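Recap from last week: sequence in, structure out.
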Amino acid sequence: MDTASKNKTAIHEFFVQFLEQKEQYETRITATYLEDIRKHIESEFSLNMTELHTIACIGEQEPINLTSIAERINLSKGNTSKIANKLLKAGWVRKAQFNDNKKEVYFRLTPVGKKLFATHDELHAKEKQRMYEFLERYNESELEFIKRLFGDMVDFYRNN
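Predicted structure tokens:
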């Protein structure tokens, strides 16, 4: 086997290991994060990551309608509607309408929803900082290559 083939094999093996480690990390961080969130909400309602991302979507875009939420978080309108109804029942979001369009329903966060949104933002900021610290070990040209590699990987998986 030539060097290029050996390198491709090693890259594939590292990539598979990376995905496995990432999945384990996300499972750990999600469990820890959701437990931390539960301390803030003092509610009989449980909350999963999809529901939390729905709250984040509403918080970033409010007021936002159901169709826009579904598109942004890549869920069906039916699933998004179920989640929105749960969030409404829990008191994390509220419905709103504009005076000039009574037919269209928009969603906004309640004060407790805003608290969840802020906590979610805080987690993302910490994760971003961790990534920046990790990337400090690479020089400018290596960072350019890594950027190109991940962009190409996104395209590869998006198009296949």
